[in-house]
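User: structure tokens for this one?
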Amino acid sequence: MAKRDYYLVLGVAPIAPPEDIKKAYRALSKKYHPDANPDSKAEADKKMKELIEAYNVLNDQQKRKEYDGQPQFKVRRFGKSSARTKKDKKTQEPAKQEESIIMRFINGLFSKKNEKKEDEKANAEQADVHFTIGLSMSESPEFMESASREFKLALKFFPQHKEACYNLGLMYYKTGDFEEARNTFKRCLEIDPNDPAAKVMLALLQA
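Assistant:
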């Protein structure tokens, strides 16, 4: 696995088209070529090797597909940190679960119950509704910013929603906001210090 994320090395978003990758590589290779840095050739040579490695993978359609297909780059579905009950997980199919969450939320809009426990339950369910909406948008580049907003809302209603946090970090990453991605994956580790994928992402996104 790469020491640093290849997109970060080239300074392009993971959703960038091939021409942007080529353009970025040409500009950076010119900037960091050892001949253009006589006073820091060792560092420039190290940087060039990193650029070449990143470019050789991202400029190859099949290699780029394999790189993008690594587990840490995939959005998460519902897991242990979602707000749904264990009974829901065991007895319903994923699609039915999502439909059930949305229907419970809609029905909840007409409920006049004001007890504290009911309010907390509604907030948890709202978190899962926004998470579900975010999931539906997260695979399309043109909707990733909208997906980010939904994952933020999920976290607002349920701050310990690990999947929403991770997916929000991925949306920042895929749209090229690497600093926000780092901050969000750090937040994921605050929720779950043993999250292996978050650790991998932070290692790849080292400055």
